[in-house]
Design brief:
Blueprint (H helix, E strand, L loop, with lengths): L7 H55 L6 H62 L3 H9 L4 H75 L2 H39 L14 H12 L12 E4 L2 E4 L7 E4 L2 E4 L5 E3 L4 E9 L3 E8 L2 E11 L6 E2 L4 E5 L8 E8 L2 E3 L10
Antiparallel strand pairs: 1-4, 2-3, 4-11, 5-10, 6-7, 6-9, 7-8, 8-10, 8-11, 11-12
Helix pairs in contact: 1-2, 1-4, 2-4
Length: about 425
């Protein structure tokens, strides 16, 4: 009686296991690729939302026919976000390229596996055809040396029949998986083509915006003396605001330490607030929320960041910002970033109405407000509206926001949430 090698069932089982592992690995890779795709799409959607919002702000400034520095600042922001969007799209394309390569690899492996499975199945059928005589099989079993060998030969025939059935099932599974991957490959190629078109369109928009940027710079450069005058006025106003805040902090420290002495408690070290237990807890909670504080406006984009930066038009001149400027829509309201007490309100040139809120040893400053909703001594809650943000004659609606830790300025961008 002709029999295949006794290793045949094991060989077929190995092929079966490998094919199953290939299908499972393909599924895992696909899930990982989908997760990456989802992350990239969320990032892209967020940037697109920011671009759309900045466009609305730009439209407000364009109602005034005179080109303004604010218009240029928003254009610069728009160009920066447009480049981010292009980078995000490029990231999606690279991710799709990786997916396409993985899909092609899986298709090649599946094709080879199916060919191997079919050859093995053909060998099984050939063997079964040659040994279809039941008498021959019985003779093979009964010719064994002993009972154990006869039992092993019987089990061999049973296993062989099972492997044939498994082989058919595995071939079908692999073929179904191959068909899915071929369909997925077509979808991936279509998605890549759409993304390439989108990327091309964004490059065209970027070129248009850069052209507008150059035109704005050219027009503003002709107003150099006027711009320089406004810059000096802004610098003087910033110094006045800084001095007012520093004086207020010094006065708060003095009063707190005096109260501590009268109460018989130990005054705080020099330049530090003497805090009550409630204020200490508030201060600790404020500090513990670093990076998670809500924005001081419901919507907006940061048009000027913290620290020193080159002037957008005047060459060789730097501007200094003690906080951040948030460009928003007309009628927008400033809101508290945390629980606290209004420790002062004041009016200053350029900054209009200013509200200072104390959060233990921290202070937040909200400048360039029109109508105020709070007064000195008011206890306020997180996200409570403080006042309406001023809109100037150029259509600019801007909140100037500062954050102080005692006498030390902080970069607000490190404290507020980045999801914007």
């Amino acid at each position: 009686m002709n029999l295949p090698s006794t290793c045949a069932p094991r060989k077929y089982m190995n092929t079966f296991i490998l094919s199953v592992m290939l299908i499972l690995a393909a599924g895992v890779n696909e899930l990982q690729a989908q997760d990456k795709k989802s992350q990239l799409q969320q990032q892209k959607a967020k940037i697109e939302e920011e671009i759309s919002y900045t466009n609305r702000l730009l439209d407000e400034t364009k109602k005034n026919k005179q080109t303004s520095v604010n218009q240029l600042v928003l254009l610069n922001k728009q160009i920066s976000k447009r480049q981010e969007l292009i980078n995000a799209i490029s990231g999606e394309i690279r991710n799709l390229d990786n997916q396409i390569n993985q899909t092609n690899d899986t298709i090649r492996h599946l094709t080879k596996t199916i060919e191997r499975l079919k050859k093995e199945y053909a060998s099984m059928i050939y063997y079964a055809h040659k040994n279809r005589n039941a008498y021959s099989r019985l003779m093979f079993i009964f010719s064994a040396r002993d009972f154990n060998q006869a039992y092993q030969r019987l089990k061999y025939f049973q296993q062989y029949a099972g492997y044939r059935q498994n082989q058919v099932r595995v071939i079908r599974q692999n073929q179904e998986e191959l068909n899915k991957k071929l369909l997925l490959l077509e979808q991936q190629k279509k998605s890549k083509l759409e993304l390439k078109r989108m990327e091309e369109g964004e490059h065209q928009k970027l070129a248009q915006e850069k052209n507008q940027q150059n035109q704005a710079i050219k027009k503003l450069t002709q107003k150099e003396k006027e711009l320089l005058k406004k810059l000096r006025e802004s610098e003087r106003a910033a110094r006045r605001l800084q001095k007012a805040i520093e004086d207020l902090i010094a006065e708060e420290i003095r009063k707190a330490n005096e109260a501590a002495k009268k109460a018989g408690t130990k005054p705080a070290p020099e330049n530090k607030f003497a805090l009550t237990p409630a204020e200490l807890e508030l201060s600790s909670n404020f500090s513990g929320n670093k990076g998670r504080l809500p924005w001081p406006t419901e919507k907006g984009v940061i048009s000027a960041s913290f620290g020193e930066h080159p002037h957008p038009v005047l060459k060789g001149i730097k501007t200094k910002n003690n906080g951040i400027d948030i460009a928003t829509e007309k009628g927008s309201k400033a809101r508290a970033v945390f629980d606290g007490v209004v420790t002062s309100t004041m009016t200053l040139p350029t900054y209009n109405n200013v509200v200072i809120v104390k959060h233990g040893e921290f202070l937040t400053v909200y400048s360039n407000l029109d109508q105020l909703f709070v007064k000195k001594g008011d206890k306020i809650k997180t996200k409570q509206e403080i006042g309406v943000i001023n809109t100037d004659e150029t259509g600019k609606t801007r909140l100037h926001f500062e954050l102080w830790h005692g006498k030390n300025l902080q970069n607000p961008e490190g404290w507020i949430v980045r999801a914007r």
